[in-house]
Design a protein that fits this description.
- This protein has 152 residues and is mainly alpha-helical.
- The protein has a single domain, classed as Globin-like (Orthogonal Bundle).
- 68% of the residues lie in helices and 0% in strands.
- It is built from 8 helices and no strands.
- The chain starts with a helix and ends in a 6-residue tail after the last helix.
- The structure holds protoporphyrin IX containing FE.
- Protoporphyrin IX containing FE binds next to helix 4, helix 5 and helix 6.
């Protein structure tokens, strides 16, 4: 028994060392959330973006009749979504994009208007190109769940 014990301990330590070495040695790549500037930056971006949506002459109609409380809920849900999707420490508090938007008949051009507002907001906040493109790719990945009417 004694003979077998130490070799197995040594083998475990060696394997453990191999597993630990890369994580100890390498600096972790900061998440998109961190590179965007963390929660305050995400929050400011969503506030600006949401104001543009509510004021828009076309898509603003979609949010007509929402009171300030509902608008605040909409902003908070989007903040949590962006925070979580970019690797931040938030919990998603909204329903899925598919569930929320199905039946609204959202058109491709409405989606483009909304995406353009986000582009304008990111430019206003001087978000660098790399982070800008990464965030737009995440938003773009939701498009199939949101757009129901192509070609309009
Ligand atoms: C561009 C990507 C989009 C994202 C990330 C997004 C995100 C969200 C989120 C998180 C909610 C709240 C869901 C919930 O209540 O659980 C929501 C609701 C909603 N979205 Fe979007 N959305 C997007 C595009 C659009 C577009 C293109 C339109 C139409 C112009 C739209 C119209 C709405 C409407 C009308 C609601 C329901 C508001 C309410 O009554 O509470 N969304 N969206």
């Amino acid at each position: 028994m004694k003979k077998r014990f130490w070799p197995s301990v040594l083998a475990s330590l060696a394997i453990g060392g191999m597993l630990l070495t890369p994580t100890i040695g390498a600096a972790e790549e900061p998440s998109l959330y961190e590179r965007l500037g963390g929660y305050d930056a995400v929050s400011a971006v969503v506030d600006d973006f949401a104001a543009k949506l509510f004021d828009d002459p076309v898509v603003g109609a979609r949010f007509f009749g929402m009171g300030e409380d509902s608008r605040e809920g909409f902003r908070q849900k989007n903040k949590n979504l962006v925070c979580a999707a970019t690797g931040g420490p938030c919990k998603i508090i909204s329903r899925s994009a598919l569930q929320t938007h199905t039946g609204l008949g959202i058109t491709a051009s409405e989606f483009s208007i909304v995406a353009q507002h986000l582009v304008d907001t990111l430019n206003k906040f001087n978000v660098p190109e790399q982070e800008h493109n990464e965030l737009m790719a995440i938003i773009g990945s939701l498009r199939p769940d949101i757009v129901e009417v192509e070609g309009e």
